[in-house]
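hi! just following up on the protien thing from before. the input was this:
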Amino acid sequence: MSLYCPPDLQPAAAVDPSNRDCLARIYLGKRRPQNAPLAPNFSLRNFNLCLDQMLSLKLPVNYYASAMGEALAVIHWQANVDGYDIEFVLGSGEVPVNPPDKPVKVCVLSEITNGWAHTIHATSTPLDTTMPAEVKARKLQTTMWVLDFNLCSRWNEPIGWQQPDVLIEQLVLAFFENDPYYPPPLMERELEQSIWHSFHTSYNDKAIEIIDALGKDERLRRLPGMFLDACVARERAKIEAGLGHGHRDLKG
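and the predicted 3d structure came back as:
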């Protein structure tokens, strides 16, 4: 709080009951403008954690990107959901007495109706390797939660081989019309390029694993790669049109 809350607001923020809980959105696709002032509407429960802040805190952004790619692959190819307007947030909890080999998990919470409502768990590389000693003493683990599925749409698998371009267009639209959680492709900085690579690799590997393990139609196997290529192609077109990285057509 002392880093990102304006000093004159810190006393009130410290006693605000809503700040007992922290919901930090993971904006891998956004840096704050250099020398930007601190947000006057600071709230821990509604906090946008941008890439420059993650880097200053020495958070493992490549692990976040990998976990995000894995989670989106589960959403796309296991749940058959487009992921429109979902949120990726960080939370923490006590480490279990007998933790699994990969104690940090991605939790995907569904709020979709029409007879489909369940939780998907996808393990990934431990997300936090730099926790302060006082936090480590509490034996906490970091968890990435995926929330807010109320605007998502499901797709039926036959569209994947009957109209693959239509499906890919829908998935790409959902990818770019979201808030800047995902790392965008074609960034100039080498660091951002590596973050996209982590997301890209994790997404593609997990998607193929799901399609093979669930015995889905083999004609779906080429679609995860098509999705990633289409994301790159769209980003290139927007950059060449002078619209910049991560441009959103519908939400501005």
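Strands lie at 24-27, 47-50, 87-94, 105-109, 119-123, 140-147.
Residues 99 and 141 are 10 Å apart (CA to CA).
cheers
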